[in-house]
Specification:
CATH class of the largest domain: Alpha Beta
Low-confidence stretches: 1-24, 235-246
Strand order of the largest sheet: 1-4-5-7-6
Oligomer: single chain
Order of helices and strands: EHHHHEEHHHHHEEHHEEH
CATH architecture of the largest domain: 2-Layer Sandwich
Structural class: alpha+beta
Mean pLDDT: 82
Number of helices: 12
Distance between the termini: 27 Å
Helix content: 40-55%
Number of domains: 2
């Protein structure tokens, strides 16, 4: 079995095992400054270092240091902008990951939209929309999986789903493979709208070019969702890309 730690789970567990540690005043100030920078960029995107320094109340050198760390963490991005004669200036803004650190009403809005769709559209149409989402995602990765063997594809699916917010593990079981979704970003939506589960199931099937059978589901009381894939003897060594139609 292969397992990638895409969300920093193992370091977090190691830290927890060593016992709690008091947060120093310096660390508290650093976190507070970082938060103020992020909040400023949330309210006023595309700010320069000097503008952020003025808004946050610290010197530009400190702001630059914090921005560098925030960029490494993938929370902030920058782009150059020309403004007359001279060197272009850098403008900073939140990335999608940075935006997601703040409370939103996306879950409530998504749930209401799905409820409205199900009231006004046939069930088959709604299910088809979710499957189309999976097909569109799969088409984005088609070139990257072309020519890969079965276990290479499983590794790729693991990484790809991690990018979508899943925590995934897979293991070989006899002649087949089990794919475990340890955590799912759609869980809260799926409680009221289980149709959303069609997205990851269809996506796994498309990427592996094999049917993915759901044998366990967290919505049914299981610890997590598990999919079973059974490669055909000829497909185990070389999965045909054209069968995926991606």
């Amino acid at each position: 079995m292969t397992c990638y730690d895409w969300h920093g789970i193992l370091p977090a567990c190691k830290l927890a095992a060593s016992g709690p540690r008091a947060v120093t005043e310096q660390e508290h100030q650093l976190n507070s400054t970082r938060d103020r920078i992020l909040q400023t960029l949330l309210r006023q995107p595309r700010r320069t270092i000097n503008e952020l320094a003025e808004a946050v109340g610290i010197n530009p050198i400190s702001v630059r240091h914090h921005l560098t760390n925030l960029q490494v963490e993938g929370l902030v991005t920058s782009e150059e902008e020309r403004h007359g004669v001279g060197r272009p200036r850098l403008l900073y803004a939140l990335t999608q990951a940075g935006m997601e650190r703040f409370p939103t009403r996306y879950l409530q809005l998504t749930t209401r939209l799905l409820s409205q769709m199900k009231e006004t559209m046939p069930v088959a149409v709604v299910s088809g929309l979710f499957k189309q989402v999976a097909e569109d995602l799969a088409s984005e990765y088609a070139d990257q999986v072309r020519g890969l063997g079965m276990e290479e594809r499983l590794d790729f699916v693991q990484r790809m789903l991690a990018e979508q917010g899943f925590t995934v593990e897979w293991e070989k079981k006899g002649e087949g493979y089990e794919i475990h979704e340890v955590s799912c970003p759609y869980y809260q939506i799926g409680v009221n709208h289980p149709e959303v589960c069609a997205v990851d199931q269809a996506l796994i099937s498309k990427m592996l070019a094999l049917p993915a059978e759901k044998v366990q589901c967290v919505l049914n009381g299981n610890a997590h969702c598990t999919y079973l894939v059974q490669p055909a003897p000829a497909a185990a060594a070389n999965v045909l890309v054209q069968d995926t139609r991606i």
